[in-house]
Amino acid sequence: MTKVAVPSLLKHKYDPGLATGALAAGGTLGNLVPPGVILVLYAIMTEVSLGKFFVACYLPGFLLTFMYIVQIYIQCKFNPSLGPSAGSTTWKEKFFAIKGIAPVVFILIAFLGGIQFGVFTPNEGASVCTVFVFLYALYRKTLNGQNLLRTFENTLVTTGMALAILIGANIFNVFIATSGLAQALAEWLTELNLSALGVVILIMVIYFVMGIPLDPLPMLMLTIPIFLPVLRAYDIDLLWFGVLAIVQFELAQLTPPVGMYLFVVAQMVKANGISMGTVFRGSVPFCVTCVVFLFLLIAFPQIALFMVSLMK
């Protein structure tokens, strides 16, 4: 999305910080909105209903998205230069613009529908959609040796950069596991004799610190088996806690100066003349919004549990 969106946003004079911050924040939402690998893994590890956990994530996912939208609106209201008007368009122009994205909509529906009905896994779905895009490019005769080579080059650079970050995170994850730090944290948590709310808040703080250098997936696999007995001892709702944990993972990945998503975005916009500092600056308002959302989710657990309560 960064590769596709940034050139258009810069063309319409959007502030580079706001543009990259929005893309990084939007990328984190993928962890919260079903179907996500982290959601499935959490449900398996905690033995909660996967269907109920998916339902518990829908309302928080949409609410956090809405809060990001309101935040962007407020930013642009106070400083219109951040997101200047792109100009008006006629209904005819709108119609033809929508008509032009029909292949993209088809790919999206095929991808999500295939995952939802068990036709393929997310990784397999990505491969299927890539083949479809390739065939569509051949049909439109927009593919040639030069842009195909450039596509492979960009893919290798982006994938290599992301894998380098993940490899480093996994090495650090092994260090954390072998050092016994996570087990020591759980024992210390039990000895504090806090209230259930105090335990949840303290775990969120621990997740924030651990989530800065670690990827969400290995961190979840490392900590859930350790924290699960504590959560059950305090009778903490595991559906609500799961939503909280995933939002906290998102916040950690979005927080400068070491949020992993920020490094991914910064690498991809380097060619557009956007510095790492600009990406960091743009992410700060989204971090504040995410913190506010976390407090709302802790204060009002029904944000996550309301839709679950309607299930029979």
Considering the chains and any ligands shown, give keywords for the structure.
single chain, 312 residues, mainly alpha, 15 helices
Order of helices and strands: HHHHHHHHHHHHHHH
Helix and strand composition category:
mainly alpha
Q: Which stretches are poorly predicted, pLDDT < 50 over at least 5 residues?
A: none
Number of domains: 1
**Average residue pLDDT:** 82
Mind explaining what this structure looks like?
The chain has 312 residues and is mainly α. The protein has one domain. Helix content is 79%, strand content 0%. It has 15 helices and no strands. The protein is globular and about 65 Å long.
Task: Write a brief structural summary.
The chain is mainly alpha-helical. The protein has helices at residues 2-11, 16-28, 37-46, 50-78, 91-100, 102-116, 122-140, 145-179, 181-191, 196-211, 216-233, 238-254, 260-269, 276-299, 302-309.
